[in-house]
């Protein structure tokens, strides 16, 4: 039970800066660090991995619309 809750908390933490990043502000380096940390500790098949992958993909897609120079890699 706790693992599923942790996955959603991580998802919320990754999603939180989206509005600021999309508006041209925000802390891109902080988001990138958190995203890499979460992905390094998650498996693609578990709740952490699937929720984290989904939200990172959403944030990257949304940010790329206005700021295509920002990359996670």
Could you list some keywords that capture this structure?
73 residues, mainly alpha, globular
Could you tell me the number of beta strands? 0
Task: Provide a count of the helices.
Answer: 4
Low-confidence stretches at least 5 residues in length (pLDDT < 50)?
none
- Determine the N-to-C terminus distance: 32 Å
Order of helices and strands: HHHH
Secondary-structure-derived class: mainly alpha
Mean pLDDT: 84
How much β-strand is present in the residues? under 5%
User: What is the alpha-carbon Rg in Å?
Assistant: 12 Å
Q: Assign a percent range to the helix content.
A: over 70%
Structural shape: globular
Largest sheet: none
Short description:
With 73 residues, this protein is an all-alpha fold. It is 73% helix and 0% strand.
Structure notes:
The chain is 73% helix and 0% strand. The mean pLDDT is 84. The protein is mostly helical. The longest helix is centred in the last third of the chain and has 20 residues, at 47-66. Helix 3 runs antiparallel to helix 4. It has four helices and no strands. The chain has helices at 2-15, 18-22, 28-41, 47-66. The termini are far apart.
């Amino acid at each position: 039970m706790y693992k599923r809750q942790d996955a959603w908390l991580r998802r919320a933490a990754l999603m939180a800066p989206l509005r600021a990043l999309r508006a041209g502000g925000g802390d891109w380096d902080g988001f990138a660090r958190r995203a890499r940390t979460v992905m390094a500790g998650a498996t693609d098949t578990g709740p952490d991995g699937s929720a984290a992958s989904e939200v990172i993909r959403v944030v990257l897609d949304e940010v790329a619309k206005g700021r295509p120079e920002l990359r996670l890699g």
